[in-house]
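Same chain as my last thread, 144 residues:
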Amino acid sequence: MTDMNPDRITGTITIAVLPQDNGQYICQMSPSLSDFPKEHIQCYGQTKEHAIAIALEQLADDYRRMAEEQQNIDWDTVERSNSGEPIAKHYHVILHYERIAEEESKFEAMHNTIMGNTVVENAKITVLEIDPDIRIAPLTRSWD
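reply #2:
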């Protein structure tokens, strides 16, 4: 008999990347994770790696949404100490933004996205309350 611990997630993620007639790729992801509600994720990409990245981002987006919903934190609630002072908490803020850019170069696509000043306001933002000592290394921009 297997242990049915509700704090444990088990399963596998199967990925198949298939070429299309137009030179693009389709990634079919089948997560058999014990808490994942979808059977399949299907995403297109320009390359095999691009299709996989989009599918993984979809999976990550679903888990970010589930994590935020489970916390069920009221946006405006401020906890206060016995003396009435606000208690500062720690949050992991995850910002996800995508756009399709028609630009003259890769540099212009990146530069115009950064300079557009709409990245934050148009992004999906997940805010998760965390323990102050959790070992999270936030992703940062890399110029490689």
